[in-house]
TrEMBL record:
SUPFAM superfamilies: Bet v1-like. It comes from Sinomicrobium oceani. This is Carbon monoxide dehydrogenase subunit G. InterPro entries: START-like_dom_sf.
Amino acid sequence: MHIESPKTTVNKSQEELFNFLSDVKNFESIMPENTSMFEVLTDTKFAFALKGMPEIVLELKEKNEFDRVVLGAASNKLPFTLTADIQPVDGTTSEVGLSFEGEFNAMMGMMIKGPITSFINTLTENLGKL
């Protein structure tokens, strides 16, 4: 399953946004309002839960200085990645788009497509408010 958010402009340079997204504790500030739990587990891993959804643990999997940050599921039960692609606009602004990639059976895919799409769109909108 592949889901992409619309790109948004962020009032941070490409390097500033890359550094922001590379620090997992910063994700708390861009989480949706319906987040019921957020906990930093290590320097590269955090757990969160949205109301009505199970807890998810994400960890920093890859960083490509200054244009890509990849987070992935810490568990192999439901393997997926969440990638932030960052492009410079000028010296003080950048553009970011989030993409979700995961392999799920058809039933699971139908159940999670809507909530995942809403989740990554909200993250992107909240990044635009930084």
